[in-house]
Design brief:
This protein is an alpha/beta fold. Helix content is about 35%, strand content about 30%. The protein has a single domain, classed as Rossmann fold (3-Layer(aba) Sandwich).
Length: about 200
């Protein structure tokens, strides 16, 4: 499937499931990942955050409650509508068409979003995020993975691209510096990366 086909299909599926997803609470281990990233953001005195693949805005609302100026983006209009009901700034956009000014954000949070991006488009997705992130800014990426496979899950209807740790780190290192990488096993292999946009090289 092309990236545009994936986005169109996922938009339909997520719009239909928006209310149910909004009523589903985050698992405790996801809250721990979010809390750890928030601590990193406080340490660098981040002020602005892009929530990429924001869903119904649960994480966006949490970051906003802790003083960050949050912009939520998602491919699904129903998700965006629920974000706005929470008082969030939210737009219907996808990772390859973000439309923000260069270096617009101090940080980017993306939980289980890039696993819907086909492998052939992942380098472009990382570059797109780097473009809107300030030098030295932090990017959290959380994904299901562990093995290399992609396609539509028949019982689910959604497209997924799963990657081995080595493959994912190779893609990430092409655009970012690695701050932290760890995995979590909750019946499925979860990959958590904290990345940083490299600072400009200083001439000597």
């Amino acid at each position: 499937m092309s990236y545009d086909d994936v986005v169109s299909s996922l938009r339909t599926i997520y719009d239909a499931r928006a209310a149910k997803r909004d009523a589903t609470a985050r698992q405790s281990w996801k809250l721990e990942e979010r809390g750890a990233f928030l601590n990193r953001l406080k340490a660098i005195e981040a002020e602005t955050l892009l929530d990429l693949g924001a869903g119904t805005g649960q994480d966006s609302a949490h970051f906003a409650a802790h003083g960050l100026t949050v912009t939520a983006v998602d491919i699904a209009p129903e998700h965006v509508a629920l974000c706005r009901q929470k008082g969030l700034t939210a737009e219907v956009r996808d990772v390859l068409h973000l439309g923000f000014a260069p270096a617009a954000f101090d940080a980017v949070w993306s939980l289980n979003c890039l696993l819907h991006v086909p492998d052939e488009n992942l380098p472009a997705a990382f570059r797109a995020v780097r473009e809107v992130l300030k030098p030295g800014g932090l990017f959290f990426v959380g994904l299901w993975g562990g093995t290399d496979s992609e396609g539509i899950m028949e019982e689910d209807g959604r497209f997924f691209s799963f990657r081995s740790d080595e493959r994912l780190l190779r893609y990430a290192s092409e655009a970012f510096d690695l701050v932290d990488f760890h995995t979590i096993n909750h019946g499925f292999h979860f990959q958590a990366l904290t990345l940083a946009r490299p600072l400009p090289q200083q001439s000597t």
